Batch of 2 targets.
Target 1
Amino acid sequence: MLVFDQVSKSYKKGSVKAVDDLSLHVRPGEIFGFLGPNGAGKTTTIKMAVGLLRTDAGRITISGYDIAKDPLKAKAVMGFVPDNPDLYERLTGLEYLNFIADVYRVPVDVRRQRISRMLEMFELTNAIGDLVQSFSHGMQQKLALTGAWLHDPDVLILDEPMVGLDPRSAHLFKDLMHEHCDRGKTVFFSTHVLEVAEKLCDRIGIINKGKLIACGTMDELRDQAKSEESLENIFLGLTEQ
Ligand SMILES: Nc1ncnc2c1ncn2[C@@H]1O[C@H](COP(=O)(O)OP(=O)(O)OP(=O)(O)O)[C@@H](O)[C@H]1O
Ligand SMILES: [Mg+2]
């Protein structure tokens, strides 16, 4: 469960209001897609949720833990992949994953099982002994996603996770998200790929100029937009200048 309660954030001493009074309740078992034009406030929202930025106002809780007041507990139950993962390039892929598993105290037998499953799925098994700096962009993305999954977090927060994944990996990754949520966990991710959001997400939120301008299931969004159209048309209509 991930809850935003009247969250705001400005940059440059208040001259840029990036997130404006955002309230949102992402439930257990839900895949939630967070959409919005470039500069709408998605990454800012995500950075506040994971404790990389402080809110100016409001509160964010992850599985009941306030990210500002109880950051270690909140971080222990979440997994995060930023839009441009900066991995430790001088570790091998396997050293990186073991480091992450150590940080989250994942028992050795459990981590072995999870790592080997994810590597097989992402076809990374052969490369995992190589230095991260030799990985392609997509391979680094897969490594970051594998790391975020290792401690089986209650809430996964992913900023444009599909960027760089080849079609097969993207397909398997979507299955993985479903499987995670079927076990009562939560996935919150930003994307610009509306077709993926339409098919994959239980609910969708659209942010524009820092404000949440729509939120709900596809049916609810159609009702709100008073049209039977695709998510693309709803999005374009709602975010028109
Ligand atoms: N570090 C920063 N300093 C000043 N302004 C910033 C900073 N980061 C973001 N902004 C501004 O805040 C607003 C929201 O940016 P944000 O990165 O959250 O958008 P986004 O929805 O993630 O966009 P994109 O789809 O391009 O990733 C933009 O106006 C941006 O210029
Ligand atoms: Mg962004």
Target 2
Amino acid sequence: MKIGWIGLGHMGIPMAARLKNAGFDIKVWNRTLSKAKESGLPYVEKLEELVKESDVVITMLFGSDSVEEVYKKIVDTGISLKGKMFIDMTTIHPDTAKKTAELMIKNGADFLEAPVLGSVIPATEGKLTIVISGDRETFEKYKNIFEVLGQKLYYMGDYGKASTMKLINNTVLGSFMAILSEATAFGKKAGLDTQTVLEVLSNGAGKSGVLDAKKEKLLKEDYSTHFSVALIHKDICYALDLAKEYSFPAFLTTETLNLLTSAKAYKLDEKDFSALLEVYKKMANIKEES
Ligand SMILES: NC(=O)c1ccc[n+]([C@@H]2O[C@H](COP(=O)([O-])OP(=O)(O)OC[C@H]3O[C@@H](n4cnc5c(N)ncnc54)[C@H](OP(=O)(O)O)[C@@H]3O)[C@@H](O)[C@H]2O)c1
């Protein structure tokens, strides 16, 4: 089985590397070719080459627009897609997942929607949680790929459900990060020692996987990117679109979006989303740690 991997961002690189290290026959392609060259993974220069050579193509892109664009390009290559398997692991709007599945099936290929939960470190360690939609038998057939990337696999049923689940997860993730940033900044403003604040929170009401993952970043104000503000902003926008569709009152998620929009206004798009702390520091005029 030849695997073609598309998308070498923060997640794509460690995930593709895991498949390579597990012995899969994998080649990668990335829009910005330099990243493919620097990845140390076997790469091709042209998307067409990758599609032609691969039995299974996995995409890990930015969001719905990039998925629609890349899948259209794949179809437009004119290469026969009959019998090929496509797996999209990008976080996308559920409607995009449904449309992409329809497009690929219409072209004789098969498709699984498989967004992931967990960031760069779980991706590197193969400890992601993966939610999967599509045909169950197809999922079972390609389970060996998912097992290299993730520790927990949840089969969700029809197309759209996995992406819906992923977006609901990220409403929690975004709102957790927001309250943890707010609490950290509040402590600074009140003159408390930040290390102590984070320690107490992680043994108190803030105890969570999110705080475990972001404690050091909040302490050191190290916003080097694992999961960017731009990505979570995109996810929260999709989640609120969905909430609107279901007439669901997503109060907290709406506030989280406002905070993320402020982060973008402060040009923090490409920073890790723990940079929400910076938004509070600016808004509360916190110049330095007390
Ligand atoms: N980072 C995380 O912690 C995390 C965790 C769980 C899920 N996710 C989700 O996983 C996906 C990837 O995340 P990431 O952090 O790896 O994102 P990223 O670092 O921003 O990488 C995005 C990738 O998509 C490619 N891309 C974007 N638009 C494209 C287009 N129009 N055509 C072709 N390629 C395009 C980029 O190519 P270039 O190099 O050419 O820009 C890059 O390879 C996102 O949907 C994200 O929401 C991320």
